[in-house]
Structures are given as structure tokens and as C-alpha cells.
Amino acid sequence: MKDYYLKLDENAVLFDPTGAVTNVFFDESNHQVYAVRSGGETGVVVSGPSPTQQSITFRITDKGSLISIKFAPDHRILAMQRSDHSVDFANFSNGQPDGMEYTQKCKVRKGKNNKVLNFHWLSSTTLVFITHFGAEFYQIHAEKRVLKLVKHFPCSTNWSVFSPTSSILVLSTTPAANILIPFQLKNGQIVKLGKFEVDCYNPTTTISPTTSSDNKPTTAKLLDRDVAVVHLYGQTYLTVLRHPNSTSNKDDKCRLDLYRLIKDGHVRKSFVLRLVKDGRFAFNVVDNLLVAHHQPSKISMIFDIKLPGVCHSNSNVICLEAVLPPCRIKPFTMRRRQGFDPPSNITSMMEERNCILYAKNWVVFQPNIIIDARIGCMWYLRTDLKDVFQLLPSDQQGLMVDFLLHRSSSKSVIISLCHTALQKETGVAQISVFFSKFNQVYKDYIDSNENVGYSQNCELRKETSLVFLDQHDVFSEILEPLVESPVLSFNYKISVLMEYIRSLNSFKIDVQQFINELIVKSLIKSRDLFYLQQLFRYKIITDSRQIANLLLDCEEQFPYGFHIALEILKRLAIADREIMEIMLKKRQVLQALRFIRSVGMIDLVPAHPFLQASLHDSSLFYSIYKFFEARNIRITGSGEFTAAQNCDEFRIHFIENFPSDSMENL
What we know:
Layout: E1 6-8, E2 13-14, E3 22-27, E4 32-37, E5 44-47, E6 56-58, E7 68-71, E8 77-81, E9 86-93, E10 96-105, E11 116-121, E12 126-131, E13 134-141, E14 146-154, E15 160-163, E16 168-173, E17 179-186, E18 189-192, E19 196-197, E20 206-207, E21 219-220, E22 227-232, E23 235-242, E24 255-260, E25 268-274, E26 281-286, E27 289-294, E28 299-303, E29 310-312, E30 317-320, E31 333-335, E32 352-354, E33 362-365, E34 369-372, E35 377-383, H1 397-405, H2 411-423, H3 428-451, H4 454-464, H5 471-484, H6 490-506, H7 513-526, H8 529-537, H9 545-553, H10 561-571, H11 576-585, H12 589-598, H13 608-613, H14 618-636, H15 648-657, H16 659-665
Parallel strand pairs: 25-30
Antiparallel strand pairs: 1-35, 2-35, 3-4, 4-5, 5-6, 7-8, 8-9, 9-10, 11-12, 12-13, 13-14, 15-16, 16-17, 17-18, 17-19, 20-21, 22-23, 23-24, 24-25, 26-27, 27-28, 29-30, 31-32, 33-34, 34-35
Helix pairs in contact: 1-2, 1-3, 2-5, 3-6, 5-7, 6-7, 7-9, 9-10, 11-12, 14-15, 15-16
């Protein structure tokens, strides 16, 4: 059994590692890594966002050490921060700078020095400076090489976090750094959301209160490394890592608080994730799972906010435990990729190299990026859920199904889970739980398609991220293999089939005919005919032409099925003549004749279709011919077929095959 459910993408983005003359920077908006050699004088190589993306290489003048470097989204303008007070810009054409840089300084208050803490591109022509005195939003005019201040939000700022995915900017204020001001930045609009206060405990970093004396306790300060903006199930959350404070019980461990950011509502804490360890953590989001990496113990934990937790009645905050036992990321071996030339500094180690997982120099970025600048590698974190259900005991497999139904590519894992449970002949009660969970999601999907338009349905799927098993999936991947299994008992197979039909009915989902056909065939094959009769008697199996045809085909094994088939066809309001034609097409001539007699049409139907349908069997043809000959005598007084009956070919066929009988008639 494997002991991991997370892995690093095999196709890593490679770049020149950090060194004596090389500095490495990451652009969280474009997901690109910048390897800057000698301040850019000897070259800048931009790699990413994917390993197949061609690198951008250029040179810039070395005007001092770079603090940050980022391209605009369209890669036509490069922004570079070399000082605490300004940002430099260079226009690009055909992938190269035009050689004329221009500079924008941050705003200055009278008698006070300001400092640029960070900057972020919001679009190809707009960006924001985060300074000690607030947020400055600029419009850039590249052709004029000037920037225009369009909006300024003044506030004393400690640090900021920015999410390109959600277009959310959060500023930290107050000495404790725990009053946060979020901004929504979309479609050229800058919307300031309501500020809010978060709880923070950090035993290592403290500041003195403004009115403190020596005998007063210190106050905890929230650090930017403990805060992130994440996107889960279509909603945006601010995460705050809370460390146990100095007065906490020694058994207290770190927790992660999730605050939901709502444009027109009050920001409040929604979830608390119990991390069961203390120390430094880093966080990623993969497939709507929040992944907590604990570097000291070299393990990761995953949390799913859609799964049930413990709700605190006084605050409506839900406390969640890790879904699965903690585990390590799958070991990663870096190999040379065919047709790829790695950066010159790492050619020697690219034949094959085992990477150190949870290295101290790992840096984690949202949503699922991990960078090791020492070896020059950027990975995307992925899930590897194959056989993951084996990590939980059998009594928690229902929870595992809930977990898998929220993953985007877990259908094969769910099917594997069902196969394993069925091969063990797991109790039907547990199988019923699985079916109920499948069909609840399936029903929600059906309702969403009926009640909303296409675009709204896409948004709904985005928010729920549910994979669902429709009836065709369950039939072909679960029920058919179940019925064909030579080791499972027949009673168990039928119980599972009936439980699936019961579950569909409980959710008011119409049972597809191939499901009904499967159980009818199974019961006929096992000759459990009484049980089959009861299913039809109590309308467990839905009426349909397909079921009626199946019963007519199996009359030899299930004689009573003929009567059931006729009743089904009548309930479907199918005309008597059409029922007759259905039987004749299936060469069920005698059954058709009996049916016509039962409905009083024996003297009204033409002989031609009956004779045509019986040509394949000489004795049958003889009987049918003699029957209609007798009918002619009874009605017209003569056994001859009239021209209107169009039976000359059958009369000739009868004479050729039964000459002695024909002579008697003569």
C-alpha cells in the first residue's frame, strides 16, 4: 500500500539556481521565475509558467541590486524595484528592452520618508505600489514613459498579501499587524472591503505596547508569512496561521483560521483547521484541498472544507481535522527530459537526481507552486489519489466517498473503491450509503441542468467541483462486473442491484432501461422467476418496450413473461395491431396469434404477415397456413386465399413443400 497522496509534477520548470552572481525572483501573477545574473548585465532568463514554455532571455543595465522584478501580463513592460523609494520600468519590443528606462517614485508625506514594500501588476497598464503609507494605484502610459496616480488609499501599512487568482489585495495595519484591509481589484474597479481584525499568537516575535511598562506583557505581532489568500470552491478566504502563545497548554498546537472574504458582507471566521503540530507551516491549494506542509517533521496534511466538522454553536465556526493521515510527498527524481537543454549551471546534475523533499530552502506560492532556488526547480503540486481509500478503515469509507466526489479527477478511484468493497461482499447497508452519495450528487447535477442556464451551470460546477457517476457509469463500471463475477453469491448480486434501483427511486431519478434489463436478465438466468414476477407486480421495474421485448425473447425460460410483456405494452398504450407487429418481427408467431385471439381480432388481421414470419420454420409455416385456411372456410366457405389477401407466394410455397396435403385439398 502506498504511503502518499501528493506528488510533484514530473515536468518541473528548470532555471539557473541561485549562486554567487545569480539571484532568483518569482512573479506570482505570471508564474514565472527570473534568473538574474550580475544584476542583469550578463543576462536575465525568464522561465515558466510551464516546462514547455520557451524561456525569455534579455539583458538590462546593472543599476544596483534588484529587490523585485515582474513583467506586465502582456510582457510589453518590465517593472524592476532597485530601491526602497521607486520602481523602474522598461518597454519591450520583440522580446527585448528598448534601452530607455523610466522611474516612478512613491508618494512622500511631509517630513516622513516613505518606502515601497511591494508592487503588483493588476493589468497590462495598471499596477499598485504597496508602501508604508498605503496603496497607490497607477495607470501607465508606455508610449509617453510616464505613470499617472489614479487612486490612493492612505493607511499605515506593515505588509501586504496579494492573490492574482482572486484579484484580492490585503493590507496589514496597526502595531500588532492584525487589522486587515482587503481590496477587490477586478475589471479596472478598485473596491475597498470592510476592514476586520484577526486573532494572532506568535511566541517568538513580539512588540511592546505603546503605553507599556517593563512589567506589562508583550503583544503578539502577526507576520506576513503566516497569512495567505486562497481560493476554495469558488470562494475566497484569508488564512491566518495561529501559533500557541506562551501561556497556552503545552498540548496546544497550531491552527489555521479561514476568514471568508465577501464583497458586500461582513468578513468573519468560517473555519478552523487543527494542524496537530507546532512550528513553521506552508500552505498550498490543490483541487480545492488545502494542503499544510510541516517542514520540521517533513509531512503534509490535507483539509477539505466541504466535509463535515464540529460546529461551535456560539460562533458558527466549523472546526476541521485532516481528511487523511499525514504523509510525505511522493519521492521525486529529476531526470533529463528528451529534447530539453537545461540551464548551463545544472547540466551535470540533470542525468538523474533525487530531490530533497521539504528542504529548508523550499518556498511555497499560491495556489500549488513549490520552488527550490538552490537546485533551480519549480514544481506544481498535484494529488495522487489512486488507492487512497485504503488509508482509511472500512467504517470511514462513506467519508472517503464524500471526499472523492469533490475531487475533479477521482471517478476511477471511486469505481476502484466500489470494486474493492463488492469483492469483499461488504454489507448492503454500507453499499447503500455509497449509492445514496452518488445519487445525491447525480440528482443535484440533473436539477442544476434543468433549472439554470449553461453559464450558470458552469459556475455551479466550479463552486462545487463535484465528479458524479451517472447510471451509465454505475452500470458499465460497477454493476456489470458485479453480475459477471464468478466468486460472489447470486443473492448478494441481486441485493446490490435492487439497492441501486431503490436508491434511484428514493431520489426520484428515472431508472434507465439498461439497469432494469440487467436485473431481469440476471433473475431469468438464475431462474428466480417468482422474485421477478413480484418485481413486476409491485411496479419496481419500470414499464418499457425494451423490457417487454426482453420478456418476449425469454418466453421459453420464463413462460409467464409473455403475459407480463403484453400487460406492459398495453399500459404503454400501444395499439393491439402494433403489439402484434412487434411479436411478428421477433418471429413469435404463435404468441402473436394467441394475443390476437385474446383481444377478439382473430377474424380481422391479414394472414400475410403471419405467413411471412413463419417461413423460417416448415412445421410452423404448415400450422399457420392451415389455421388461416380453416379461417377462410369458416368465413367464406372456401379455403382459398383471395387476391386481396396477397398470399399467392405462400400458396405456391405450401404446394411445393407439402404436395400430398395440397392434393387432398384438390
